[in-house]
Amino acid sequence: MGPPGGPPGGAPAQVPPHSVQGDPATFRAALRGLLNCARFSDVRFLVGQDRREVLAHRCLLSSRCDYFRQLLSAENPVGGAPEEPVVLADVPPEAFLTVLEFLYTNSITLDRRTVLEVLISSLEYGLSELRELCVEFVVQNLDMELVCEALQVAVTFGLRQLREKCLNFIERHAQDVLRTPAFHELSPAALLAVLHSDHLAVDEVELVAATRHWARVSSAVLEQPMGQVAQAVVGELRLPLLSPSELSSLEEQNRVEPFIPMEQIAEAWKYHALSRGEATRGIQGRRRKGTAPREHHRFLELLPK
C-alpha cells in the first residue's frame, strides 16, 4: 500500500514538468561576449591580408557549421588546441567577425560596407540562412554605389534573385549607373547581362560610350587591347539604332580607339541600306526602353513592352 495521499500501488508520484526559459536577449548577449574573446578560446585565426588575429571556440564553430567542422578537424585531427593558427587570407576581418556573430548568436548586424563580403563568406561556408539574410539586406539597400558590385556577386555566384533585382534597378536608373566607377569594373559576364536588356532607360549612344569607357578601363587593368577585352560584350550593342551621322562618328572614334569589330559596324551600315529588309529584324534592330527616336526607326521593330 502506498503512502497516504500517494498514488495507489506504491507508484512514484508524478511531478508535472516545469519549463524555465531565460531571456533570449540575455542569452545572445552572453554569447556575443565570447566573440573574439580569449576566455576558453581554443582556436586562433589569422584573417585577411594583414593577418588579423581572431579567437574563437572550436566546439561552437564545429557544431554550427560543416565547413568549420571539416576545417578544424583537418587542422587538428587529434583534438586539443592547435599549435598553429588557421590562416584565412581571403576574407576581410570585419566580414569574418560578422559571420562569427551569426554563428555564435544566430542573429546578425549587417553593414552596407561589408555585406557583400559577408554574403560571399556565407556561400563559401555553406550558411544558407545567412546568405538569405544578406541578399534581403542588399535588395532593401540597393543604390547607385551598391548595385553594380551586387550584380557582380550575383553573376559570379549564380544568385538568380539578386541578379534580377540588380538588373531591374539598373534598367530604371541606367543613365546614372553608367557613370559610376563600379560599372566600369564589371566583369564581361556581368556587363553582358546589362547590355542584353531591352528595358534599359538609356539611349544607345550613351550605352556605346559607357561600354567604350569600360573597355578602356579593362584594357588598362588587364594589359590587353580594348578589342580583345570587349570581344565578349560588344555584340550586344545595337548599332543599327544609331543614325547615319552617329554611326559615322562611331566609326571615326573606333579607328582611333578600336573596340568594335569593323564587321559589326559594316552590318549596321547594311541596316540603313536595306531599310525595310530582313536585316532590320532581330535583337540588333530592337529599340530599348530609353532609345531616343530617330527617323529611320520606323523601319525597325517596336519598342519592348
Automatic annotation (TrEMBL):
CDD domains referenced in this protein's UniProt entry, alphabetically: BACK_BTBD19, BTB_POZ_BTBD19
Coiled coil stretches, renumbered = none
Which InterPro entries does the annotation name?
A: BACK, BTB/POZ_dom, BTBD19, SKP1/BTB/POZ_sf
According to the record, the residues making up region (Disordered) are 280-305
Biased composition range(s): Basic and acidic residues: 292-305
Name all BTB domain ranges: 41-112
The entry's protein name is BTB domain containing 19
Q: What organism, scientifically named, is this protein from?
A: Vombatus ursinus
